[in-house]
């Protein structure tokens, strides 16, 4: 299933946040969206998954979601959004409970995603016992359990320390290599964008409009820290963003 | 640093350990000391009474109050008083809390309910419900009805306020998460909103439990044959201070027990917080 954004604009009262966004998220690719803070990245993501209604334009689902998809557009949040009173297993099970699936299938789905995110040993732990990286892996497991067509990731690594971020990024790359999931990945971190993105969409500062779409035609596996091509693209992106980020930085909030 | 001080050996007066100035401000409960406090006060009181420092008319000795209590046990009236009081407390507290939860949830989640009911609750909450007791007697009769209604009203308002306050402070990110996974509204309320508001709801219950004991006694003092309140009132009228102390001590035990039960509930349902 693809996701197509057509002429999307959004404003909160008088504040224009996004202007005329046109974007295509094709099956099997990761589209990274970067931009200075306050450019409407997160708003764009909320619009994509229907958590907010656009002022103008529309978001279209093209094609059918995969077989057994319980929630085609599924989020992974920056702050994990785990229920602190539920165990790892309980947090995954939460999003399966509302669907009429047999208990055996539910159990199978839980076991499967915990296996895939290497959390099987922590089934009964509660979020408070887990590190930030593990919490985000639980959130990813929860997202995978509904077999999504598109993963909408809102700065999933931003709340983590840099070492954990590296580890989890490797996990995401491995996961993509195995499953070729489709994703829209919001980040302010250029390194994440060039490591994970097949397409990098650069937004301007508010009102956010698309400045540039950079396609990176290199297998994710080869994009190591020391790769000069990757570093080059990252530099190129930073040159594009630098002025915008500076200007956004001195803007008054509100 | 070695370079700087080389050549000039510091005199002993210049080298001193850094003074410790942290710590403190973390009181830890030591259960045994609580018991010792009780024991010391009771002992001093008993000795004071026996030696005549405290006149028996002013304050009877603990042993006399105990004797009055044992009299009550032997006469078989203890059970009547206790069961009458507990039953009223149970009915009033349970239904007051349930209604409070329902109305508090409505105010917490629904704009119309909030606009309509929140001001009403704020207006009625500060009224001492004892002042309304005569009205309740007219409405619900002099029997059980008015007593239960007083307690019910007393519990209702703190529970409403605690519930919607708790719901207001639920992390909206969790609710958005629920919506993003397509959870139904009922499921979001049942599995996300209410569990997250539970700490606030339970501390509200602590308050409403104490209020309901106060109201229980007040209501029983106005026209009840049996009940701890009636027992205390009768003792007061007869100036039998030993019975009065025995009755009041029972009320204190009531309060402690209820508090303990709520602590148990917190330990059971809020274990995830620690």
Written description of the protein model:
The complex is a heterodimer of chains A (254) and B (274). Chain A is α/β, with parallel strands linked by helices and 254 residues long. Chain A folds into two domains: 2-65 and 152-250, P-loop containing nucleotide triphosphate hydrolases (Rossmann fold), CATH 3.40.50; 83-148, no CATH class. Chain A has helices spanning 41-48, 88-97, 103-116, 132-145, 162-179, 190-196, 228-250, and strands at residues 2-12, 15-25, 30-34, 56-62, 73-76, 150-154, 182-186, 199-203, 210-215. Chain A has a six-stranded mixed β-sheet, with helices on both faces. In chain A, strands 2-1-4 form a three-stranded antiparallel β-sheet, with helices on one face. In chain A, a hairpin with a 6-residue loop joins strand 8 (199-203) and strand 9 (210-215). Chain B is mainly alpha-helical. Chain B has a single domain, classed as MetI-like fold (Orthogonal Bundle). Helices cover 74% and strands 0% of the residues of chain B. Chain B is built from eleven helices and no strands. In chain B, helix 4 packs across helix 10 and helix 8 packs across helix 9. The two termini of chain B are 45 Å apart. The mean pLDDT of chain B is 90. Chain A binds chain B through residues 49, 51, 70-71, 73-75, 77, 79, 81, 83-86, 94-95, 97-98, 126, 128, 142, 146, and chain B through 173-174, 176-177, 179-184, 187, 191-192, 195-196, 270, 272-273. Chain A: GO terms for molecular function: ATP binding; ATP hydrolysis activity. Chain A: Belongs to the ABC transporter superfamily. Chain A: This is ABC transporter ATP-binding protein.
